[in-house]
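Consider the following assembly input.
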Amino acid sequence: MVTGRSRTDQGILSPSRRLAGLYAGLLVMLCASLLTGAVPLSLAQSLKGLWGGDDLAATIMREIRVPRTVLALFVGGILGVSGAALQGLMRNPLADPTVFGAPQAAAFGAVLVLYSGIAGALSVALPVAAIAAALLSFVILMRIVGRGASVVALILAGLAIGTLAGAATSIVIALSANPFAVTEIVFWMMGSFEDRSMLHVGLSLPFIIAAMAMLLSQGNGYRALVLGEDSATSLGIDVSRLRWITLVAVAMGVGAAVAVSGAIGFVGLIAPHGARLLVGADPKRILWPSLLAGSLLMVMADVLVRLVPAQTELRVGAVTALLGVPLFVAAIRRHRGLFAEGAS
Amino acid sequence: MTGASLHADHISLELDGRAVLSAVDVAFDAACLHALVGPNGAGKSSLMRILAQVLAPSNGRVLLDGQPLARFDPRQRARHVAYLPQDRQAAWPMPVRELVMLGRMPHGATVEQARPADWQAVEQALERTQVSALADRCVTQLSGGERARVMLARALATQAPVLLVDEPIAALDPHHQWLVMEVLKQEAQSGCTVVAVLHDLPLAARFADRIIMLDQGRVVARGDSVIVLTAQRLADVFAIAVRIEQDAHGIRLIQTGLVP
């Protein structure tokens, strides 16, 4: 009889030691993000600008680089943890926030505001419209499938909402008479943290942090779902409640993220797969590492776009997609073997 | 273990306008191994899902020691009723020991925050189902029979007064079928109320204290094996021809053919 097995015996601590590398990588990338930009600043100038003064370095640090870095950190984090939560909920390694249509709906809300020109006059309108559209998409989703809906019904309804939002966005772009507005919309849709301010941080962070807290608190539910909905219910999990908490959190967090960064793909898909390499497949245990991995990937991509010389700054959404597609294909190939049935 | 009586109180279930269960009224007693038998589509798994409260009946209720189970808090209910569904798939490649620890979730335990008593319950369950050697293996790498025993260990680890198991021996070889039936019998002898859906009628006759036979959503017979498993009833319900012999352990069923 083995009683009171130590956590080290259970192999719990070694993955957390591996997590230290993730923390270190994120710290390095955060520093790189604060030190990288169009205007070359020395380390001393950067630190001085960060903590005080009212010269150019202080303006660059506090009004450009800090908001940009904070947004990349939190947007990446919410996309990563949303992907992990949805994969746990749907028991599917290829699930991603886009399956429920919230990011597409958020993008449509933002594009409407850009098209109408309100965004130029009132900057707060853009994030508000995107968050409102994401939450509206969630309300419509609930109205379509009803309470107690199956995951398949949710995916199909999410697909319909996402497709509709994408089509509506295309129509808005096509109808736009102003070529500058079209350029602005297309650039925004590719995703970027360029020219973001503390206003964007203040508008999006409360929603993103609340969503993160909601998703991180549901780990036991995702873990119980490993055995299916019937088993999870019999273990005392209210699966219907878990489903709606997850959907509300994803709609809120991802909606707020899309509002301030535009459409950035694949982070929600890749981050949980990276986390699994570090801590195993347990759906509860991958939540926090997925958040960190999403942050790391996003901050890294945002540093990369500033380092590549180009006429206009590369879009971070394009970089995450370029990184994401090969990893996505690799994930499919990996899981094809990983989830094969054992020998009988 | 202190058992609890479970009562399916006039349970009816309709799905898509079809009557799956019709006024099923059965009491399941503590310290008793009940075998739920019947042909495919008789409503056995639906009744088990209703007893476990993962499916709501169209009519009727489930009572635990006279109290409606639907009114229990989900975790309180989970501490009283352990349920092993037919589906034995695990969505993620988790270690066997950690998967069995899920059975302690109703007691507030997780792998990260388990007390010695929780690990003890897990190790006992692993030993009883003879999967201790697989404890550090990944559940998705196991054979169907091994996985079935791991899932049973997960249900046993809860140490609930009521144990509901749906086809617990379906994927097992004869050795492990017998082993699992012995484990279920021991659970009942320790005071637990055990309900098992079984297709193996000879093993049901050998081990079960009571047999409940369902056909087309209705209870057609209940009682001990001698009363329920008659040649005529098996011909009527299962359309099989059976020779029945009596021995020191009860009756033995020998199938001799099909009834046209």
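The mean pLDDT of chain A is 83. Ask yourself how this observation constrains the way the partners meet.
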